[in-house]
Amino acid sequence: MVCLGNICRSPLAEGILRQKIEEKGLSWSVDSAGTSGWHNGELPDSRSIDVARLHSVDITDQRSRKFVVSDFEEFDLIVAMDSSNYSNIIQMAKSEDEKSKVKLLLNFSNPGENQAVPDPYYSGGFEYVYTLIETAIDDMIEYYQ
Ligand code: 4NP
What we know:
Helix content: 40-55%
Number of helices: 7
Strand content: 5-15%
Distance between the termini: 18 Å
Bound molecules: 4-nitrophenyl phosphate
Oligomer: single chain
Largest sheet: 2 strands, parallel
Radius of gyration: 14 Å
Structural class: mainly alpha
Number of strands: 4
């Protein structure tokens, strides 16, 4: 799960997916990262921690890290929150196979529409962002299960 800062959106996506993996007994692993590295080592944004907690998801064990090229080998699927994250990741790919692993999260809910999970860092709307992410993750699990 990848966004820009790995403190607002992708930590929510990681936390939500981790909980659903546990609930459904799936043998999937999940991690999150940011394309920027600006917040390396930091906890998720307190507004993400709070909205996750309201939904009984604890994301306080997460720390921000930058997306790295070895993630292409480590993971089968790389899920971007918006098209800017998507193009930044695609630019780092070394093959068509690596490029094909990169998907936009909301395309699992609205195929082909290339919609963004809006960046809530300056504008807020964390509850809305949570709902968008959770619905798309349900659709993603449905797709791959
Ligand atoms: P995120 O949100 O990409 O969802 O983690 C942001 C966090 C930090 C910044 C931008 C977006 N920033 O400009 O520092």
